[in-house]
Specification:
The chain is α/β, with parallel strands linked by helices. The chain is built from 15 helices and 14 strands. The protein has helices at residues 14-26, 38-48, 73-101, 113-121, 133-136, 144-160, 193-197, 216-223, 250-259, 269-277, 291-303, 316-324, 326-330, 335-338, 341-353, and strands spanning 3-8, 31-36, 54-57, 105-109, 125-129, 166-170, 184-187, 206-209, 229-232, 237-240, 243-246, 262-265, 282-284, 306-308.
Amino acid sequence: MAKIFFSLSGEGRGHASRVRAIVEHLRSEHDIVIYAPGEAYNFLNPAYHGSDIRVEEMAGLRFHYTASRRLAFGRTSREAIGYLRRLPSLVSSLTEAIRAHRPDLVISDFEPALPRAARKAGVPCVSIDHQNFLTTYDLSSLPLPLRLHAFYMGLIVRGYGQSPVHRVVSSFYFPPLRRGLQNVTQVGVLLRQEVVEAIPRNNGHLVVYLRRFAGENVLQALEGCGREVRVYGLGQMPPHRNLQFLPIDEAGFVNDLSSCDALICTAGNQLVGEALHLGKPVFALPEARNYEQYINGHFLRQSAAGESAELEQLDGARLANFLNRLGEFRSKIDRQRINGLPRTLHVIRRLIDNPRWLTHPETQPEFNPVV
């Protein structure tokens, strides 16, 4: 049994969902400690309270938004500067923890402190995230403005992390990797077991997931679509016409998602991938100035498995056009390729069982897709 330290970003539930999907398969084999900030800690700590998995709270970056639903660069930047000032002391405390407990492997899902501590302590680190698509994928198919944003965002991602021994990049889309890269594994989305086990069916309703906010244009378009709409992310409220506003509930959400005709959501990689695995067309709504989500929306359209438009641009006509094309979108979804968990687990187990693979990846045994 090996010991694994696992850290993750605290923004959104995508990171926490990826970590939980991995941990649930490794917990019977290895001793695991999770370091989680903010929202990720609030999600994971109750899930593992009193279990064999230890969840430690740590400092992390947080994004703030304005009243007009745009990223608040000023406040976000000020908090980021404060976090960076505290980062050396955080790295020092984590280095002490690594030296005291001697983990065999460190895994990071887009979190900067633990990989730096692992490097100082001489423990191998593997990154498993979506964000490194900016440093590993050939993004030449993007429109020029998005390519420029991707370039600058890639510089930030490079500075954020610390040269892991291996990078696993998780995404619902699969452009070619950049030439000359080594020690990179491209996988699909890391699916929760509840999603893997769900039985897809089409019961006619739509599922909507909106993070933090939704403009009147979105709700008006949904009211006029002629279908039952189950809305998550805005909190529980009384029903309004054809709209049901439901509280976040993992089991209820997966059941509604697996039985819906389509998903309408912000353009996060994790949720879009889960829906596509279940064979559901997606209308992705990137949040304003969230260029990673713009890129996700571009590749969703390129895959022909769904549609994308900015939140402020959704109206009844665009939604009706999407709903009229659901059969066309469904025919383009490659459900099997979307599940990236088996290959990710394979990489982790190889890194633990055969450290020589870190420098000689050609020694990797054949991949067995059975999880």
